[in-house]
Specification:
15 strands, single chain, globular, 532 residues, 6-stranded antiparallel β-sheet, 50% helix, Leucine-rich repeat, LRR (right-handed beta-alpha superhelix), alpha/beta, Serine Threonine Protein Phosphatase 5, Tetratricopeptide repeat
Length: 532
């Protein structure tokens, strides 16, 4: 049997690997102990760099070691005699990060260390870094770490944006299924072609061009999701104006609801509140105690009495236009002002023409591939974007179909249906002098978007919907609600129920609610009449 290699049995091989693993672990523990001891003793020297380098070459994702190296590099740099010594030190660090990135091109720590070196040293070579990005993107064109790093480098060296834009075009034509390239392209697009005249995010001709490009990508492979997501972003790239949607005054509370999230600083500088044509001063408090919110409580010392004849708010918008909302008296000491609201996206004529053409193309593709969920979803989104009211019935039918062909995402389609139904109902509700809300559609609500629009309602009926306990925190927007009906839903717990100044709460027919928990809730909220 001479001259033949001995083939290890599986048990022998297993034992050998375990022995190797234990030896590596022993060395790792020894190295880490020595590194941490040196750090504790303040020994920031070349030996510390050598020790951390050996460990990082095996495992580049130990963030603590990179932090230690930064401390040592800064310390040695302060004691260096000249800039050349410091420069060589940083060059060595860049070589180390390159080696680590060869081990793991998606190492967060290695990319961050590279950023730190280049922003710390006085002589960064940004052109070389851009070439490095090109090299790594040839190896893996979809590595989002490299794309993110490229964005960082470009922000420093400021190459022509047109070249960067063409670079994304080249990469996308190589592989349309490149999420990172699409995302990077969206950032460049906003900087390169902003609509300075019309106030839209993107110039109309480039908006239209991007829609054409993404259609080609989507139709090349209808099952690939990257192009569809970029298309959804393009459809949402429309001009949005910050507006007050409703202003409510009662003896207990005064609130202002907005269509977008705003800060207290913004409201204080842009909004004036008038009682009897006199400006009222006060403090704005976030409904959710956040820096930005879409519902704010106005803390003022004005008594709401018979002396108050008229209430109005004046909002100076960012385009220097003023909107004035005059409040009507709904009940004694209750004033409510509602703005004109519209959720329909406003596109230019050229973009709208392109949307209609692409809608026709989607319909043709659906005729050939009726089970293509992305084509059906895009058709639905096009219908909603072009004319949500006109096509609402077809939109609902499509979403119901999507729930069947793509059952794993039924929850998403249900929430989208809830959102679009509420958007259809809101303009009608705002024309009525009512302080009551009830779902006006056959489809049950699964989520509660735009709830700040109904913050003025005194009674809210969410009975017989499909709401779960996840929706409870949203109820905090109902700051003026006194009667809340949550009967016939799918509540399982009341732990996230927000504080509301309610008088009546109906919890009937929520079979998964624990009776003991309801009793504890009732004990905690003695002022509320709870029906269960």
């Amino acid at each position: 049997m001479h001259g033949r290699l001995k083939v290890r049995t599986s048990e022998e091989e297993k034992a050998r690997k375990e022995k190797e693993r234990q030896e590596k672990l022993k060395q790792f523990k020894y190295a880490m102990q020595k590194i941490l001891t040196k750090r504790k003793n303040g020994e920031q020297d070349k030996e510390q760099l050598d020790l951390t380098e050996k460990v990082l070459c095996s495992n580049p994702d130990i963030h603590t070691l990179w932090n230690i190296r930064r401390e040592v590099l800064i310390s040695i740099g302060k004691m260096a005699d000249n800039e050349e010594t410091i420069s060589k030190l940083y060059d060595s660090e860049l070589h180390l990060t390159e080696y680590c990135l060869k081990i793991n091109p998606k190492s967060y720590c290695s990319w961050l260390q590279r950023e730190w070196v280049l922003t710390t040293r006085t002589d960064p070579d940004w052109k070389k870094e851009l070439e490095l990005c090109n090299t790594y993107l040839k190896l893996d064109e979809r590595n989002f770490h490299t794309w993110d790093y490229r964005h960082f480098v470009v922000s420093k060296c400021k190459p022509p944006l047109q070249e960067e834009f063409e670079f994304t075009t080249e990469k996308l034509y190589d592989n349309f299924s490149n999420y990172s390239a699409w995302h990077y392209r969206s950032k460049i697009l906003l900087e390169l072609y902003p609509d300075l005249v019309g106030g839209r995010p993107i110039q109309d001709n480039h908006h239209k061009h991007e829609l054409k490009m993404v259609q080609s990508a989507a139709f090349t492979d209808p099952d690939d999701t990257s192009a569809w997501f970029y298309q959804r972003w393009l459809l949402g790239a429309v001009k949005e104006t910050v507006r007050v949607v409703t202003f409510t005054v009662t003896p207990q509370k005064t609130t202002a609801a907005w269509n977008k999230f705003v800060s207290a600083e913004y409201i204080s500088s842009q909004l004036k509140v008038y009682f009897n044509d006199t400006i009222t001063e006060g403090k704005w408090i976030s409904c959710n105690e956040h820096e930005y919110d879409n519902l704010w409580i106005f803390d003022h010392n004005k008594e709401i009495s018979d002396d108050i004849i008229n209430v109005k708010v004046e909002h100076k918008m960012l385009d220097d236009e003023n909107e004035i909302i005059t409040c009507e008296k709904y009940e004694p000491y209750v004033f409510i002002g509602k703005n004109n609201i519209c959720f329909q996206n406003q596109y230019s004529e050229a973009v709208m023409k392109e949307l209609n053409e692409q809608l026709d193309s989607c319909r043709q593709l659906l005729a050939l591939e009726p089970d293509s969920k992305w084509t059906l979803l895009t058709t639905t989104v096009f219908l909603h974007c072009i004319n949500a009211s006109l096509y609402h019935k077809e939109v609902v039918e499509n979403l119901e179909t999507l729930k069947k062909v793509d059952s794993l995402r039924a929850g998403y389609y249900n929430d989208l249906l809830s959102k679009w139904n509420i958007e259809q109902q809101l303009p009608c509700d705002y024309k009525k002098n009512s302080m009551h809300y009830k779902n006006g559609f056959n489809e049950k609500l699964t989520s509660l978007p735009h709830l700040q629009y109904y913050n003025f309602c005194k009674s809210v009926d969410f009975s017989n919907q499909d709401l779960t306990s996840c929706a409870l925190p949203c109820l905090k927007k109902l700051q003026h609600c006194k009667e809340l009906d949550l009967s016939g839903n799918k509540l399982t717990t009341l732990k996230k129920f927000p504080y509301l100044d309610l008088e009546v709460l109906n919890l009937e027919n929520n079979p998964d609610l624990n009776l003991e928990e309801i009793e504890l809730f009732k004990e905690k909220h003695k002022s509320i009449k709870i029906i269960y």
